[in-house]
Amino acid sequence: MVDIDKNSIRMILTMAEESNEKWRVNKLCERLELEKYEVSKKVTRLAEKGLIDKSDITDLKLTEAGKAFAVSFSDRLRKVTTHLEYEGMDSEAAVRNAFNIAMYCDNDYKAYGIAMFCLCIRSVCCPIATSRSFSVLTFETLLC
């Protein structure tokens, strides 16, 4: 997974969900509720990583790599949300927590070891991890 922060991921997902929109920095600021300087920096960094094409600053677009990232992250997000609901978390809380967990669950998450993965899960969604046994093996199956 490309090393990017939460708001950059939000930006990519927003642009992917509304791909027919003509995206400008100001419009992203409004949509994401971020300051202009922050969005400008993120656009530049994402362009350097090959995820956004900013050749026309009045019409920012995701590159093919950016679109692939959005699809991959959205799929991971859906799987995490589904698993959290399976584990007993209510839908609203599952959606709220899934994004943070999905950030730790890239395609190579096994390299971090199952213990590290469990620590990530516990730090993000303590109600599940502390109230009952978290079925990591089921979660691992979902993400593979």
What is the radius of gyration computed over CA atoms, rounded to a whole number of angstroms? 17 Å
Q: Report the major sheet.
A: 2 strands, antiparallel
Outline, from the CA principal axes? elongated
Q: What structural class should be given to the helix and strand makeup?
A: mainly alpha
Number of domains: 2
Q: What portion of residues is helical?
A: 55-70%
Q: Count of DSSP helices?
A: 8
Description of the molecule:
The chain has 144 residues and is an all-alpha fold. The protein is 67% helix and 3% strand. It folds into two domains: 6-62, Arc Repressor Mutant, subunit A (Orthogonal Bundle), CATH 1.10.10; 78-143. The chain has helices at 6-17, 25-32, 36-48, 64-86, 91-104, 113-124, 126-131, 136-143; strands spanning 52-53, 61-62. A hairpin with a 7-residue loop joins strand 1 (52-53) and strand 2. Residues 108-116, 125-138 and 140-144 have low confidence and may be disordered.
What is this structure, in a nutshell?
This protein is mainly alpha-helical and 144 residues long. It has helices at 6-17, 25-32, 36-48, 64-86, 91-104, 113-124, 126-131, 136-143; strands spanning 52-53, 61-62.
